[in-house]
Amino acid sequence: MRIAVVGTGYVGLVTGTCFAETGVTVTCVDIDRDKISRLRMAKPPIYEPGLETMIRRNAEKGRLFFTTDIAEAIDKCEVVFITVGTPPEEDGSADLSHVLNVARDIGRHMQDYILVVTKSTVPVGAAEMVRKAVSEELAARNTKIPFDVASNPEFLKEGDAIEDFLRPERIVIGVDSERAEEKMRKLYKPFILNQHPILFMDIASAELTKYAANAMLATRISFINEIANLCDILGADVNLVRKGIGSDSRIGNKFLYPGVGYGGSCFPKDIKALIRTSEEKGYSMNVIKAVDLANEQQKLRLMMKITGHFGPDLKGLLFAVWGLTFKPQTDDTRESPSLVLINRLLEAGAQVKVYDPAGMPEVKAKLGDRVTYAGDPYQAAEGADALLLITEWAEFRLPDWDEVSDKLKQKIVFDGRNVFDPAELKRMGFIYYGIGRR
């Protein structure tokens, strides 16, 4: 089976590579010539554990190709996945211009039947817009070539994307024809054999499923963050509360870890897009609006604790920041709480020294020389008035506290992910601040 994947960002690259791993012949397309050149050398532009090795293996076996020519990519292929970005507009709605540009390109160049699948995160109705764009280009060519449109939203976690794709909890596919369902069932057959559930539904329901899933996960994060903030006020311990409610099978314990708020490329923009979609239809999603508001406020929670300890004027103080990406196992700093906090520290007159295992290049591009970049966690801590943990990378979980103590100017720790043991740090003479910890 031959397929094309248009867009070699996070979703597109993982999608194309993982399908190639199952024996499908895949051509990945991107307009960025430099990116395609690097991919042909098995150098992915993103950090994802195991991806580079998988790209190289499938390219060497003649199953994975990269090109800037969409006409070449879709020639003789049965399915085309659209995986380009849908960044937020100023009003929060999803920008579909890249998706529709790809749809027009498909309409201009297709020579035979193709199933066009939107895998980009798009609002309800986007598939119909794609259908219209393809049809208009075919009409402009004065030709009639049959095609179908489907929705196949992705549920990939950065840092675990390959595992999520190859062993998914569920595969959601929206179709409106038997031919489209047959094509998608054939493509996903390797996953069905492994008993992974494949859920066929109408296109609108599939499109909404992606937004609803992210909204539910974001809601759980904002909920437990608000409970943690209340624990700070009441003197309770959120870790104990979390265990207490998580043992209820109706609630469960996933996504109940308090911290400094969620970030990344999905939750923030998807929440805003869902709010905007509902408003366009005259409906107010009050719970989801509250989730968004609570998360924006949570990103400032650690700053409140810092100014509560040091006062509002931070001139002359140096802060060490461990973790810059929005989560571990990625180099993605989009909407990262660490950047919000760093900017607030700088505005208050502080100096900041940072370290992250993968996110330093992205942050250098965004912050330049406004902060100091350390070569390791202990170098970041040297001479600092306080240590701030923002991203819970594994290498931060069990630091040598004696060495940290020797490096710090003041033994103060602000734990934005509740990773450290408050009692241990107290015994060692540290002042500890967590999120909802006693």
Word description of this protein:
α1 (10-21) packs across α3 (51-60), α10 crosses α13 and α12 (267-280) packs antiparallel against α13. The chain is an alpha/beta fold and 438 residues long. It has a 6-stranded parallel sheet, with helices on both faces. It is built from 19 helices and 14 strands. It has helices spanning 10-21, 33-40, 51-60, 70-74, 97-109, 126-140, 161-166, 178-187, 189-193, 203-234, 238-246, 267-280, 286-298, 301-310, 337-347, 360-367, 377-381, 401-407, 422-427, and strands at 2-6, 25-29, 64-67, 79-82, 114-118, 147-151, 171-174, 198-201, 318-322, 351-355, 372-373, 386-389, 412-415, 431-433. 45% of the residues are buried. It has 3 domains: 2-201, NAD(P)-binding Rossmann-like Domain (Rossmann fold); 211-297, N-(1-d-carboxylethyl)-l-norvaline Dehydrogenase, domain 2 (Orthogonal Bundle), CATH 1.10.1040.10; 299-433, Rossmann fold, CATH 3.40.50. β9, α15 and β10 form a beta-alpha-beta unit. The mean pLDDT is 95.
Secondary structure topology:
Blueprint: E1 2-6, H1 10-21, E2 25-29, H2 33-40, H3 51-60, E3 64-67, H4 70-74, E4 79-82, H5 97-109, E5 114-118, H6 126-140, E6 147-151, H7 161-166, E7 171-174, H8 178-187, H9 189-193, E8 198-201, H10 203-234, H11 238-246, H12 267-280, H13 286-298, H14 301-310, E9 318-322, H15 337-347, E10 351-355, H16 360-367, E11 372-373, H17 377-381, E12 386-389, H18 401-407, E13 412-415, H19 422-427, E14 431-433
Helix pairs in contact: 1-3, 5-6, 10-12, 10-13, 12-13
